[in-house]
Write a structure and sequence with these properties.
The protein is mostly helical. Helices cover 76% and strands 0% of the residues. The two termini are 16 Å apart.
């Protein structure tokens, strides 16, 4: 299964949470903007094949154009998605 499928499934889950009032609409929109960036770089990797180095290289590339606070937010979202997938 590709990481893009996991992100899309996570997004459907988050939309449902938003519909129930458990997640703010603005939070979901912001997270989807970040998730779109992640999809572009990591989406084609099989979820079982993702390694720490893949994420480190992704963050290294993003570091060229992003502030540290943005990178932390992106890393936190990757963690959230991965933890959701394990759950």
């Amino acid at each position: 299964m590709k990481f893009s499928k996991v992100i899309n499934d996570w997004y459907a889950y988050r939309q449902r949470m938003c519909g129930l009032g458990l997640v703010a609409d603005t939070t979901l929109k912001a997270q989807m903007g970040v998730a779109a960036t992640i999809l572009g770089s990591l989406g084609n990797i099989d979820i079982a094949a993702i390694r720490k180095s893949d994420i480190e290289f992704y963050l290294g590339e993003r570091r060229r154009s992003c502030k540290p606070v943005t990178l932390r937010g992106e890393l936190n979202l990757i963690r959230q998605i991965m933890n959701w997938a394990v759950d």
